[in-house]
Write a structure and sequence with these properties.
alpha+beta
Length: about 300
């Protein structure tokens, strides 16, 4: 009687039986959307029999949700609207863990979890992995290309004027970075050297030298961004912000996409910092180096 009463309550609270909608998918199959029910577990024998008497069908516990897929149904890239249900085939009755407790028992009802396909759509995982692999492939390709360029003695000579900007090993933070104009001028000296001394086409000389300098500067920025990540994880907001800002200052001339990413890192740290010590006016580090005495002098 306990199980029958529980099923009657389920029917009254769930309302009428619903049916899974057919999946909408064009031909050829490139993308589509629809509804799914993933089985979770069967009802205990006594509850299954009582549910059959109350609902007119043998039912099991499942999870109903909507999904969007690419390249076929298995490749779900997004899921939403999940709910626990009692189901048979495509027919289902919405319910909840609390309503299922009389049928499953308190312990099993508390252990109910949405299926992993709902929490981690396979297509989303696949595309994320593919994107990560592509990013690594591009990064490795750029590094190899820069290494190949660096093997050319002419390119190493052309780099000398740029390397002269960084003769000192230790600088006070924020005061050591050459200006964008100084960097461009140093690179142009290298381009002129390649054109005049080795008769390389200007566009080709600039492209190769820029690629090489970009990777060199990326290494310099990494020396600040990786420690900044450690500072952020440790809650040292000032140090983290200073590190990301310095990395941004280095990369904004050479890799706009990376510079935008570093801006988001600065914003993220500032929001965390504001939550602890109060708001701060958002200003991006200027690409300049002080040429006059400081106000304290």
């Amino acid at each position: 009687m306990r199980f029958a009463s529980a099923c009657v309550v389920l029917c009254l609270t769930a309302g009428s039986c619903s049916e899974v909608l057919a999946q909408q998918m064009p031909e050829p199959i490139l993308w589509g959307w629809g509804e799914k029910i993933k089985p979770i577990q069967d009802l205990p024998p006594n509850a299954r029999e009582q549910a059959k008497q109350a609902l007119g069908k043998e039912v099991a516990v499942g999870y109903h949700y909507k999904h969007f897929c690419l390249f076929g149904e298995p490749a779900d890239v997004w899921t939403w609207g999940g709910q626990y249900v009692l189901f048979r085939g495509n027919n289902y009755w919405p319910t909840s863990p609390a309503q299922l407790e009389p049928l499953l028992g308190a312990a099993q009802a508390r252990e109910l979890r949405p299926p992993w396909q709902y929490r981690f759509p396979p297509g989303l995982i696949g595309f994320t992995c593919l994107g990560a692999a592509l990013a690594v492939f591009i990064y490795v390709g750029h590094r190899r290309s820069a290494q190949k360029i660096l093997e050319d003695g002419r390119m190493r000579e052309a780099l000398q004027s740029y390397a002269m900007l960084f003769q000192q090993e230790e600088f006070p933070p924020g005061e050591s970075e050459p200006t964008a104009e100084e960097k461009r001028a140093a690179m142009q000296e290298g381009v002129d050297f390649l054109v005049e001394e080795h008769e390389i086409e200007p566009a080709k000389a600039e492209a190769k030298l820029r690629r090489l300098i970009t990777e060199i500067e990326r290494d310099r920025s990494n020396a600040y961004r990786y420690p900044a990540l450690e500072h952020e994880q440790a809650g040292r907001w000032d140090e983290a912000q200073a590190g990301f800002e310095r990395a941004l200052l280095i990369m904004q001339e050479w890799d706009p996409a990376d510079a935008e990413f570093l801006k988001t890192c600065v914003q993220r740290v500032r929001k965390k910092r504001e939550a602890k010590v109060g708001p701060e006016k958002l200003e991006w580090p200027e690409d300049r180096r002080s040429t006059s005495s400081s106000p304290d002098e």
